[in-house]
Write a structure and sequence with these properties.
The structure holds 2 protein chains of 2 kinds.
Chain A (H helix, E strand, L loop, with lengths): L2 H17 L1 H27 L2 E7 L4 H13 L2 E6 L5 H8 L3 E5 L3 H10 L10 E4 L6 H20 L19 H32 L1 H5 L6 H31 L7 H24 L3 H18 L11 H7 L3 H15 L2 H25 L7
Parallel strand pairs in A: 1-2, 1-3
Antiparallel strand pairs in A: 3-4
Chain B lengths: L6 E12 L2 E12 L3 E5 L6 H8 L7 E6 L2 E2 L4 H5 L2 E4 L11 H11 L7 H7 L15 H12 L6 E5 L7 H16 L3 E6 L2 H7 L2 E6 L2 E6 L1 H8 L3 E6 L5 H7 L5 E3 L3 E6 L2 H14 L5 E5 L3 H9 L2 E3 L2 E3 L5
Parallel strand pairs in B: 3-8, 3-9, 6-7, 7-8
Antiparallel strand pairs in B: 1-2, 1-4, 4-5, 9-10, 11-13, 11-14, 12-13, 15-16
Helix pairs in contact in B: 5-6, 8-11
The chains are: A mainly alpha, B alpha/beta.
Chain lengths: 371, 317
């Protein structure tokens, strides 16, 4: 290994990317855009309630108070629907997905129950809904909870089963804080994989590799400079993402050596995969397609964007075979849960994987032709 | 240079196969120190395969190649430190300037005292020193490629088709640089399919066709030994001129769609043809009588068709 040669390669690659504005954009700006877009979506979900249309056919003090109760305790943004119109028609015309209908006689039944202890007296609240809307079941679940609470209150019998929530974390984390480690893992993967594949196929197609074959540069020098280059890019990109996350969303994440360790292990793993791909796929376009075929499923199945528990069981099993899953888990263990044991476990798995694919990548890398 | 033999390059019974295809077919030749050696042949003749085996990019199927006294299959690292290579279709890093590119390659060779300014001056790129590679024209890129091939002050310089794809002016500018190398006493191994280039620059020309070397000597001796006739060219001649010359027993051919070329054995034949044309009242703008050049030698040896100054191989006649 010749440090002067490694340094020269690293310098040329960094200078090239610094002067190539498009590459700079995709290196730094793309993950930031993802953070801003998803962050904005998740933050608004954390803060805002659902929109609910209510049609009060009774129009009495009791029914009006009940609607207010939904607004205050149910965290619904209420739109009042004119009692004279058809709820079904209203949904179709106004493109809403659910109208809660309070029937006529609501107050009368309520008073009979309260003052005459007539337990047979009841009213039926109707949900008129559009079944094609994905948020309707959630709305109904919340409404059922609210109605159960009202029923409970009216019976005046204290509940036997109560619930209390105790977080394993010392303080409350928002979704954005779970999201950032996933985005870091995803970005480092795409940068290392596509960076290696694109750079090497481009240099080979342009004949630069052929020229380098006639210089004293060794494979070790070249691969080492590639690793240093990809690591530098990954670290710069991660720092940028963290700065934006802190500045815009005021995230609270634990930053220590584990973050750097996971980034470096991930760079080794995906540079290794990139080198293997470059060996077998000669054209730049095919290489990019092959890299996409690897990175896309991994991006969505390994828990970068959402917890894998939301997926069917067989996909969860599959996710646990993906290297990115262990980077996601490891980064969250280190940055959120501050769980060194779990981080070590995930680092060991990704470390072994990185070592194997990197060695295979080094073996697969060949410059001389026709051998 | 090999002390025992005095040759810088020795190629013995070199063969390279790709499956059933024989790219280089049992060739042998030597290159002396300080000479410009041109491997001349049409596309697909085996020039690049040969030069890439000699400069260690490819390995031979059989045969031996000794460069600077070392076996190219065994001493790659020692060899590349002492040679400079301009590969075919040379390219470099788009966003790196001329000066930075030379500094980069100088570092790859661990050279601490490379005269970057001197190299830039040698290839006449002084006003482009801070220009990024992507902004250079084809000719300027080739000149940079030649400068890169010299960063380690090599004993042997390999130039694989250094002027292919360049316009005539850029080609001549590259030739000027190559003549400068010749004056510096470098051993230069040149591959080309341009006759004029080989004739102008080379001390020795080896003609390769279908993987075999079919002739090798100095351009002058190749012409002298292979041809014993003169070439008469009639410029912008009338259409009936071909027929008139043909009836006299010669074999005229149309060149550039307007000139007519024919081989004659004696200067008296020229007189006879001109008299016949005068009698027939045929018009031509001018005439040229000269000894054959490398182009005619090549055509005679390979039966290749000549097209726009470079050759396209056809079935041998």
């Amino acid at each position: 290994m010749n440090p002067r040669v490694v340094g020269a390669n690293l310098f040329v690659k960094l200078l090239g990317v610094y002067r190539e504005k498009t590459t700079m954009f995709f290196t730094l700006a793309f993950p930031i855009i993802l953070i801003l877009v998803f962050g904005t979506i998740f933050m608004s979900q954390d803060n805002a309630g659902f929109h609910l249309c209510v049609q009060d056919l009774d129009q009495t003090k009791s029914s009006i108070d009940s609607v207010k109760e939904l607004e205050v305790n149910g965290k619904f943004k209420i739109t009042r629907v004119d009692p004279a119109v058809s709820a079904i028609q209203y949904i179709k015309v106004n493109k809403v997905n659910l109208v809660l209908v309070i029937p006529k006689g609501f107050e009368k039944s309520l008073l009979r129950r309260k003052f005459f202890s007539d337990y047979k007296s009841s009213v039926t609240i109707t949900y008129v809904y559009d079944p094609s809307s994905s948020s309707v079941p959630t709305k109904m679940e919340i409404l059922n909870g609210v109605l159960a609470g009202i029923n409970q209150e009216m019976t005046s019998i204290p509940p036997f089963l109560k619930s209390a929530a105790t977080s394993i974390l010392t303080r409350k984390y928002r979704f954005i804080e779970y999201f950032i480690p996933g985005i870091i893992a995803m970005s480092v993967m795409t940068l290392s994989l596509f960076g290696t594949v694109n750079l090497n196929t481009e240099l080979r197609q342009k004949g630069i590799i052929r020229k380098l074959c006639t210089t004293p540069i060794t494979h070790t020098d070249w691969i080492l400079s590639d690793i240093l280059y990809q690591s530098t890019i990954a670290v710069v990109s991660t720092i940028t993402m963290l700065l934006v996350s802190y500045a815009v969303y005021d995230v609270k994440l634990h930053l220590d050596a584990w973050l750097l360790a996971f980034i470096l292990l991930e760079v080794f793993a995906f540079v290794g995969i990139g080198m293997i791909l470059t060996r077998f796929v000669k054209e730049a376009q095919s290489a990019a397609a092959a890299a996409n075929a690897i990175s896309f499923p991994m991006m969505f199945l390994s828990g970068s964007f959402f917890p894998i528990e939301l997926m069917p069981e067989f996909l969860q099993k599959f996710a646990k075979t993906l290297p990115l899953y262990y980077v996601n888990e490891g980064l969250r263990a280190a940055m959120i849960f501050e769980d060194n044991q779990a981080a070590l476990h995930d680092a060991a798995i990704i470390g072994v994987f990185a070592a194997v694919v990197f060695i295979l990548g080094v073996i697969a890398t060949r410059w001389e032709e026709g051998q | 240079m090999t002390e025992k033999t005095g040759y810088t390059i020795e190629v013995e019974n070199l063969t390279k196969r790709y499956g059933d295809l024989v790219a280089v077919d049992d060739i042998s030749f030597t290159v002396s120190t300080g000479e410009v050696f041109a491997l001349l042949g049409p596309n697909g003749a085996g020039k690049t395969t040969t030069v890439e085996i000699i400069n260690t990019i490819r390995t031979p199927t059989s045969g031996t190649v000794t460069l600077l006294g070392m076996d190219v299959t065994k001493k790659k690292l020692d060899i590349v430190r002492r040679i400079g290579v301009l590969p075919q279709g040379f390219n470099s890093f788009d966003r790196i300037t001329v000066r930075e590119t030379l500094q980069y390659y100088s570092r790859l060779f661990s050279c601490r005292n490379t005269d970057i300014a001197g190299l830039i001056e040698l290839v006449n790129l002084e006003d482009k020193a801070n220009e990024q590679y992507k902004n250079l024209s084809g000719g300027l890129r080739q000149r940079l490629g030649i400068a890169i091939a010299l960063v380690n002050d090599p004993e042997v310089v390999f130039l694989d088709e250094p002027t292919t794809g360049l316009d005539p002016r850029a080609r001549r500018e590259v030739w000027e640089v190559l003549q400068g190398l010749k004056q510096k006493g470098k051993t230069v191994f040149l591959t080309t399919h341009y006759m004029e280039e080989a004739e102008l620059l080379a001390d020795t020309v080896a003609i390769i066709s279908k993987g075999k070397i079919i002739a090798m000597d100095s351009p002058a001796k190749l012409i002298e030994n292979t041809t014993n006739y003169l070439v008469l060219t009639l410029l912008s001649a009338d259409d009936n001129v071909i027929e008139i010359i043909r009836t006299m027993g010669f074999e005229p051919v149309l060149d550039n769609d307007k000139d007519i070329k024919t081989r004659v054995e004696h200067i008296d034949d020229v007189q006879k043809i001109l008299s016949a044309l005068k009698e027939a009242g045929a018009f031509y703008l001018g005439l040229d009588v000269r000894k054959p050049n490398l182009e005619e030698v090549f055509l005679k040896l390979t039966g290749a068709a000549f097209h726009n100054g470079h050759v396209v191989e056809r079935e041998a006649v």
